[in-house]
Design brief:
single chain; 214 residues; mainly alpha; Rna Polymerase Sigma Factor, Chain: A; Arc Repressor Mutant, subunit A; 9 helices
Length: 214
């Protein structure tokens, strides 16, 4: 494989079809050699899944390298810069795959038109604290059901309460990251206004649950 300086990498990747194709093939081989380090502790580098994931990440990395070529400032080796892009792409894909089989949570109304909820399993809280916590959860769930649309509820449950990555939740809901972010923003504003109307502040709500998980 031909060794290149930073300037030569840039020139070859900007060149005509043959030079660019060869540079991409060389960069592909370099990235593939380094990717197992990104999977350490997360995926067996010798597994079929790892091989398939590596190919997917390499293709994504090469596209990003070409897209962001003008942003390379030459402060490091070009291949080091490309490796950093590959590692970020690998970690993003690993997180996405971890959530792929997890269904988006739902929040529904029960037969008595009261909000269904899950009681908080706080074994360290006293009886009175548990009652306060569960009463507050009922109240918050009721507000969520009354104030938010079905999509806003699903977004809030998935991202804010269950920790779904924004990209994965957006894909599941048939939208994009920016639209989902705006949906979440609007939902939070509506919740804040309703809490204030009910005489509650976010701090007061959180204080009820501050012992949970301790």
């Amino acid at each position: 494989m031909e060794k290149r300086t930073n300037e030569e990498w840039i020139a070859d990747l900007r060149a005509g079809e043959d030079r660019q194709a060869q540079a991409l093939e060389d960069l592909r081989a370099i990235i593939l050699r380094g990717l197992p380090y990104a999977f350490t502790g997360r995926l067996d580098p010798n597994s079929p899944e790892s091989e398939a994931l590596a190919e997917e990440v390499v293709q994504e990395t090469l596209m990003r390298v070409l897209e962001y070529l003008d942003t390379f400032e030459g402060r490091s080796q070009f291949t080091t810069w490309a490796h950093k892009i590959a590692v970020r792409a690998a970690l993003t894909e690993l997180r996405r795959r971890r959530w792929r089989e997890v269904p988006l949570p739902e929040m529904e109304m029960d037969e008595d038109a009261d909000t269904s909820y899950r009681e908080l399993p706080d074994s360290q809280a006293g009886p009175e604290e548990q009652v306060d916590q569960n009463d507050m959860m009922k109240r918050i769930n009721r507000i969520i059901m009354e104030e938010l649309t079905e999509k806003q509820r699903k977004a809030l449950m998935a991202v804010a309460m269950q920790g779904f990555p924004l990209e994965e939740a957006a894909q599941r809901m048939g939208t994009n990251r920016n639209a989902l972010y705006k949906m979440m923003h609007d939902a939070r504003l509506r919740m804040k206004k309703r809490l204030e109307k009910e005489g509650l502040t976010p701090q007061e709500v959180l204080s009820v649950f501050e012992q949970v998980g301790k």
